[in-house]
Amino acid sequence: MKKLDLVLAWALVVLGFVDCGSALASFRGLAVPRTWFFIGGIAIVECGFLNLLRTSGGRGNARLASTISNVLLFLAFAGLSIFAMLDGHVMQSTMLILVLLMVGSEMLFSIR
Questions:
Q1: Residue 91 banded pLDDT, cuts 50, 70, 90
Q2: CB of 98 within 8 A of CB of 15?
Q3: Which of these ranges, 18-22, 27-31, 75-79, has the smallest mean pLDDT?
Q4: Do 38 and 20 touch, CB atoms closer than 8 A?
Q5: Which range (4-8, 32-36, 41-45) has the least confidence?
Q6: pTM, whole model, 2 decimals?
Q7: Alpha-carbon dihedral sign for residues 106, 107, 110, 112
Q8: Which residues, at least 6 apart from 79, have a Cβ–Cβ distance to it below 8 Å?
Q9: What angle, 0 to 180 degrees and rounded to 10, lies between the N-to-C axes of helices 94-111 and 2-26?
């Protein structure tokens, strides 16, 4: 389970950087959607790094920060998934579902 935890943490970091890169490539100029998309990628990267810190033996504040980050990111992506399903676009957003599954797994790892 420890290896899966580590793999998921690194996957979040990589996926966050992909999200940031796609924000830069997808939008023209300094548009508000581009900015929010990029900030979302940064949040995913940060959550991944906090999980890496926790898996490397982080105790106390590192573990607490990882848990809080996972819970907040999970709730944010769960809310986005609900809105996407209500709007009929959930299958178009594979990354949203992928991040939700990874962050949900990391949340369970950090809570136990």
A1: low
A2: yes
A3: 27-31
A4: yes
A5: 32-36
A6: 0.80
A7: negative
A8: none
A9: 150
